[in-house]
Structure formats: structure tokens, C-alpha cells
From TrEMBL:
UniProt keywords, alphabetically: DNA-binding
A Pfam match: HTH_20
Organism from which the protein derives: Jeotgalibacillus salarius
Domain of life: Bacteria
Transmembrane segments: none
Record's protein name: ArsR family transcriptional regulator
GO molecular function: DNA binding; DNA-binding transcription factor activity
Amino acid sequence: MNDQPLNVSLEQAKLLGNALRVKIISQLIDVPKTAKQVANLLDQSGGNVHYHIKKLHEGGLIELVEERQYGGVKEKYYLAKAKWFNSVGNTPMDPVLNDDYLSRDSTSLSLRLNLTTEQQEEIKEEFKKFLESWVVKTSVRNYSNGEEFSIGVKIVSTKQKEEGDTEEKL
């Protein structure tokens, strides 16, 4: 799989604003799977996972890569188009991460570092691995008493953009 982030529309970003859908995508990164296989891995009902897979497929975030006839049933195998996604423009991927969102519980962490280009790439990769590890940690059990949180990491140069600069995303 290409490790480059996929640029997504506002509608696609809304589809990603759901912890179960993120978990589903995480299960479809390397190996195509059916909705039933994903449901078993995530300890979720088949109908629930099928619904979310259908929405992700319709939204262009996963693709149907194979269909197999198994007895009287047609098995559909899906694969994620990317494991990282970028929103286009200045809107955060998840509207919950907007500064004006009134959350019941929120923590904001920030600091400034002087980084070389190599260090910026290194910290970006470390954050990606860290977030991926938490997707895996929270995918193995269904925490019925858990609460959904949105977590975003933003690495921003303190130098302001000048006219003619091209825009690059994380």
C-alpha cells in the first residue's frame, strides 16, 4: 500500500469522524477482508460493520477488490485506499478538533521545538506510529463503557507562508 496520505473532501472527512470506521479501515490496510471477517476481528456485529463498510465504500475511502462465490453467498473483499488522510484547506479532518467545539472533556498539549527537516520527518513518523498503536489497542476489545475522543496532531512551522509558496500537508 502507498503510505502517502489521501486528500479527502469534507464529506469523506465526516465519514472518518467515527471511531468504528477508523478501526474498520485499520483492518483493511494490508489484506483485503470481508465485512464478516472485520466484524469478527473487532468483536462487532456483522450488520453494524457491513453498514459502515458500505458507507466507507460509497464515500471512496475503501475499495472493493474481489468478489468470491461461497456456496450461495457472494463474499466481497475490501481494501483501504490509504491509512492516513488529509483534509483539503484549513478545515481540520474532524470538526471536533475545531477550537470552537464545546467539548465536555478536552486536553490541549503544545510546545515549540527547533527541528531540522530530518527531525520534522522523524517526529511525524513517530506520531503516526503512536496513533496507529492506539488504533490497534482500542480495536481488540469493545469498550462499552468507553467514550469516543478525537485526537489530532498538528506540526506547524512558525514561519508564515509567503505569496507564491506551495501548500504542503502532513
